[in-house]
Amino acid sequence: MQGTSPEAKMIFLRNNFFKIPEIFRLSYICRMFLQEKPLRVAIIDMYNGEPSQGMRCIREILNQYGEYNKIDLDFEEFDIRRKLEIPDTSYAIYICTGGPGNPVSSEGSEWDNKYFSLIRQLEAINQSDSPEKKYVFFICHSFQLICRYYAIGKISLRKSPSFGVFPMHKTSDGEQEEFFKGLPNPFYAVDSRRWQVTEPDKKQLEHTGAKILAIEKERPHVPLERALMAVRFSDYFFGTQFHPEADPVGMTIYLEEEEKKKEVIKDLGDEKYLRMLEQLHDPDKIMLTQNLILPAFLDHAVSSLQEAE
To answer: DSSP states of 14-77 as a string?
Structure first.
């Protein structure tokens, strides 16, 4: 009934309401009236012009989500670091990507100032009486940036890069997290970074209301702080250090590039490289993570926006 006037939809609904199974009536009503305006999503591209499988994966997740749920979902991309493109506050959902570089040294740069001006505007809307809240997901580099903004931990360069499929250990708060339902403990995800957030500031966490949901693999014999891997910053802001969008196709292409293959084998050895390729196609590892976390975030945002209609 897309393109039909609200009055015609109401007549159709009144005449056909009891033909719809009771369990589906609420979602049916919500879907009908949500289509009066598209669900608008802004993808804030942090890759600074570098080739990325992450952007492809995010696009595919959004396209598949809209098709599966019969939602008119429109998304736009904003190249913030290279072109200083920034969305306004009219979007319902914002997905901020990963990307290269130092998440500390960019503070005060033009693109960084523009980005956090938007974040402050979205915070103000979420703290206001406006019924239409703004939902933001932060991935990898943007996760480090938002941790810097809230000052919830120490941001530092790792002793060596982390790259591959690794276990993510849920905290007690993570066990209760809605977006992690259906994931085992630990669950597996793609980790690709040179920087990390460690040494969480308990007072600042309490002050901001942020909750740590997952940490790096615990290794009691290694005297190093475990990095934060997922944080719920508020009811509307959520972030992961790992890549929940990553899929086996993209990671396989990336790992089979000659330069990357040599780099991984040099750092980890042939055996771990081959094991990494095998893990990519394990349905209980990154495929499960990709199928659950971002779709759960979108489900929550869509449901909340429908309630506010």
So the answer is: HHHGGGS-HHHHHHHHHHHHHTTSPEEEEEEE-STT---HHHHHHHHHHHHHHHHTT--EEEEE
